[in-house]
Write a structure and sequence with these properties.
Number of strands: 5
GO molecular function: catalytic activity
Pfam family, one: DcpS_C
Radius of gyration: 14 Å
Oligomer: single chain
InterPro entries: Histidine_triad_CS, Histidine_triad_HIT, HIT-like, HIT-like_sf
Number of domains: 1
CATH architecture: 2-Layer Sandwich
CATH superfamily: HIT-like
Distance between the termini: 32 Å
Protein name: Histidine triad nucleotide-binding protein
């Protein structure tokens, strides 16, 4: 997938502060953090967004959430954190590659905005 910044990070062609990686998922610190802990959790497989998931991606999406749980513990925010997935530009998705934001380390309000 030429031009996808997350694919480039997953292939290690771009530098990032990686906090987790395995054969399916890579996670790294957000360059523009919105909380003291702001990690992007990204499947290595290029999937545009939630609308492009197929039934064969169920295990992958489950694994992403388990990675979020482990990172929340590692970063010591397990007492309160968010896992967010924006779908589409109107929702705030700025990179056309499925990704989840793990946010923690501060009190959050509801509704978020």
């Amino acid at each position: 997938m030429g031009g996808c910044i997350f694919c480039e990070i997953a292939k290690k062609k771009l530098d990032s502060r990686i906090v987790h990686e395995d054969s399916d998922v890579i996670a790294f610190e957000d360059l523009n953090p919105q909380a003291p802990v702001h990690i992007l959790i990204v499947p290595r497989k290029h999937i545009v967004d939630l609308l492009h998931l197929s039934s064969t991606d169920q295990t992958l999406v489950g694994k992403i959430h388990l990675v979020a749980k482990e990172l929340a513990k590692k970063k010591r925010v397990e007492t309160g954190f968010r896992v967010i997935c924006n779908c589409g530009e109107e929702a705030g998705q700025s990179v056309g590659h499925l990704h989840f934001h793990l946010l923690g380390g501060r009190r959050f309000k509801w509704p978020p905005g």
